[in-house]
Specification:
Length: about 300
């Protein structure tokens, strides 16, 4: 069985969750600050990305971070381009940890229009996908945001996600479609119903041999996405933490059966550069255990 087939089998059937380690340019300073590295500790972007790679290397090489509980890790391009313990990051994840490597491919958001923020145009997507395949990346992730329950806006956001997904599938990878509903959306439940309807229509049109993953905000209505969990074209339904604390996100996740976590900030909550390795590994292990347990309901 090829690596891709093994990874697809793991993503489909193994219990666990997805670690989102993909904060990029705009969110990196904040991620470092939460980790206890203050602004001003670096003098240029290269130094900043070096520090964030040290942080991610510490997470990925931790004995707490293994394929027993973690299905996949989402990286951004800069992390994919670097090595961990002498191996390209994606190879280290799979060969050493048995964790599936996934690449964030969007380049940020357009200004809000029709109550949503679409992904910025990215004509270089094809070249990035070629590079990802050459580095043995299994799949991709791309995020856009719904701020209002605006039917036209939600339709446009799902259309863009599935357009990009078609290009990603054609490149031999499995896309994570992530149209996040802002947890502060004043009509959150209504926005989620609109989103569900639009995704359902797109999945109906998807050829039977094609596969996607969905990464969605924990919904107001429990088990709203149960149909997607059962859909044979959906490899996995993932939940983003979306600004909830880890405890809040875990509690909501437990109620949504068959959905597994893909947490970013909620995963690394409480980790700091100042901790000893023993403290760091214990804190990370505790976070992984709680998120894993919430993901297997």
């Amino acid at each position: 069985m090829s690596n891709f087939d093994q990874q697809l089998q793991k993503m489909k059937s193994q219990p666990g969750f997805v670690a989102a380690l993909d904060q990029s340019g705009g969110s990196t300073p904040h991620a470092l600050e939460l980790y206890g590295i203050k602004k001003g500790s670096w003098s240029n972007d290269e130094e900043m990305y070096g520090l964030v790679h040290q942080m991610r290397t510490r997470i990925i090489t931790s004995p707490s971070f293994t394929g027993d509980h973690i299905l996949a890790a989402i990286l951004f391009e800069n992390t994919m381009d670097r090595d961990i313990e002498g191996k390209p990051t994606a190879d280290y994840l799979w060969d050493v940890k048995r964790i599936v490597p996934i690449l964030k491919v969007d380049k940020g958001l357009d200004p809000e229009k029709d109550g949503v923020q679409l992904m910025k145009a990215f004509p270089q997507l094809g070249a990035l996908l070629d590079k990802g395949r050459s580095k043995r990346i299994f799949g991709t992730k791309m995020r856009s945001v719904i701020k209002q329950a605006n039917p036209a806006g939600v339709k446009s956001i799902v259309a863009q996600q599935f357009e990009w997904a078609a290009q990603i599938i054609a490149a031999g990878m499995v896309p994570i479609i992530e149209p996040e509903v802002d947890i502060h959306c004043p009509q959150k439940a209504q926005a989620e119903e609109l989103l569900k309807s639009e995704i359902k229509a797109k999945l109906r049109d998807l050829p039977a041999t094609q596969r996607v993953m969905l990464k969605l905000t924990l919904p107001t209505q429990v088990d709203l996405y149960a149909d997607f969990v059962k859909d044979p074209k959906v490899v996995r339904v993932l939940a983003l933490s979306g600004g909830y604390s880890r405890d809040e996100a875990d509690e909501l996740l437990r109620k949504n059966h068959g959905v597994v976590a893909s947490f970013s900030r909620a995963l690394v909550e409480g980790l700091t550069a100042q901790q000893t390795d023993a403290e760091f590994n214990a804190e990370l292990g505790s976070a992984i255990k709680s998120i894993y347990e919430a993901s297997i309901t």
